Amino acid sequence: MPLPRKEIRNRAHALVKNWQHEHREQAEAKPFWEAFFQVFGVDRRRVASFEEPVKKIGGAQGFIDLLWKGKLLIEHKSRGKDLAKAYHQALDYFPGLSDSELPRFVLVSDFDQFRLYDLDNHQQYTFTLSQLPDKIHLFDFIAGYESVDVPQEETELNSRAVQLLGNLHDALKASHYSGHALEVFLVRVLFCLFAEDSGIFACHQFVHYLIHFTAEDGHDTALYLAKLFQLLDQPENQRSPHLSDELTAFPYVNGHLFAERLDIPDFDATMRERLIEAAWFNWADISPAIFGSLFQAVMESSERRAMGAHYTSEANILKLIKPLFLDELQQEINAIAALKRGQQQRLIAYMQRLAKLHFFDPACGCGNFLIITYRELRRLELAALKLQQQDNSMGHLPLEIKPRINLDHFHGIEIDEWPARIAEVAMWLMQHQMNREFAREFGNEPDLLPLKSAANIHHANALTTDWHHVISADSVNYLMGNPPFIGKNFRTAQQNRDMDSLFADSKNYKSLDYVSCWFRKAADYIGHRPIRAAFVATNSITQGEQVAPLWQPLLEAGITIGFAHRTFAWQSEAKGKAAVHVVIIGFGQETAWQDYRKQLYHYPNGKGVGNAETVSRINPYLIEADNLVVDNRSTPLCAVSPMVYGNKPVDGGHLLLSPAEKAELLAKEPAAAQWLRPLLGAEEFING
Fold first, then answer.
1. d(C-alpha 330, C-alpha 339), whole Å
2. The pLDDT of residue 309
3. Which of 289, 331, 361, 603 ranks highest by number of CB atoms within 10 Å?
């Protein structure tokens, strides 16, 4: 029986770790290839021989570095040598081999670079030693698995793949398959596409299942997808013994993704072909942070050319989470690394602290803030584990090296169902990617399947939901997110009711942007607890009439600002999308910031990374000054004329000129210049 694929991947990771710095050819080549065969549980001596003698063209004596007769020839060179030349050297041995000895595969390597040639299918695969665990399926012929045809180079994921799935979505919707069922179905398909390209499933397991089992006209595609989805939610020991080997080979996934019994849509030949063609793209390198954007591009035809239009860039997410918690945690691990003694105890305490942290995004969308936070925490933990391993190597008491940060410490609320489900799936995908990073360092990959925990993503209206029902504030350490930006003139009736319930005790609250609801509800949720919070917001809540109704009650409740990014452009990744001008505000009770150096970030041109300044205090206008709030009033503060109206054109438009009309007037009557003035309103003033 072949070794389980997971075991083979783990052995490949260990091989990479043990041999990634080897340079010598003669001294270490044989042990390397002995270890290579052991990755697949194969004793090299039973199948292949070193230094196999062979007569070359012209009668000269040659020696093949390694020959598995009828299967594989290996030519090995020292690091940096010309592998193309090594391949031609390997071919020079062929005339001296009998027909039964001629290999199908030729492998040339210099320890770091690999080239595998499939002579039957005229395919060539090039990869590095570090990529071996992800290319291990190319050696199924060694492991004892049936070889499958693999494209020479998978096509990189691009807008074409998204267009194919988008067209499939449109065809399904046109066949009256829509709503919840369509969204769940496509999330499952995307998971399978990612899984077969990233080691969760066997390589191309999903697409080969579609090709070999479903009819070309598509009439039975729904039947086979329904069976597969049912199986992915069924533990191996509960499956029917009468299943085909191909179905049995799929792993048990668990989680919520495949639990719901779903009516699967009917397919035709074109729809089946679109799905298969999309599956040949390489989905493994999707950042889970853009998983939601990709899904939205599939769902909305207008967005398929602008992949990335609706996701928050990692750079902008880091602007919030670095000063909120990440910088401090990074500084702490740096300080531990510099210790000469007592490092082990500090590392244990540090990792225990990381594993206890809880994060809550009450406007999580597709989960971008939670996804990047989880990734950065896992990387901090990885740094600590590497330090721990180094300390253990010096004779200290060894501890089990494994990740301990759980997905169920990440919580979110999202009002729309499909982003909520996407967030949950994307967190699993990020967990898998971080498990792979762990494997590159420690030589074994933690089990992802069956899924044992999940991020707690609630499909609900965050403003009518008691946040304590999602997670008690006594357990939360950090509150964060990017709530929706909606001005007073664009709110729905429901959104106005949300505001009425939150600000009933405040005056002038109807002028507030909708994002202010999350600040108010967060302050109530925090109470007197030392929770740190940070939200992205429209810059309007730090200007003019909005400051008093939002910030005065928060200040009176003891809320203080710990850090802030002043106005900058929150630019979309998509072409042609206008930038929104935003601020980021970190806030909470004073106890949450008592040991914190308050940071105020300035953006001279509204873009870039911002210039950080350490300040003593930050007020609601995001300046270093006392918490003085200017309220609106109808009478002047001093002896000046009262303001009856602001800028209010009442000329019927007859005195307003466009730039072209102004130029035309001055061309005819230059003396009119003294009467022309620029017309400035709130929009022009706020936006410079």
1. 15
2. 36
3. 361
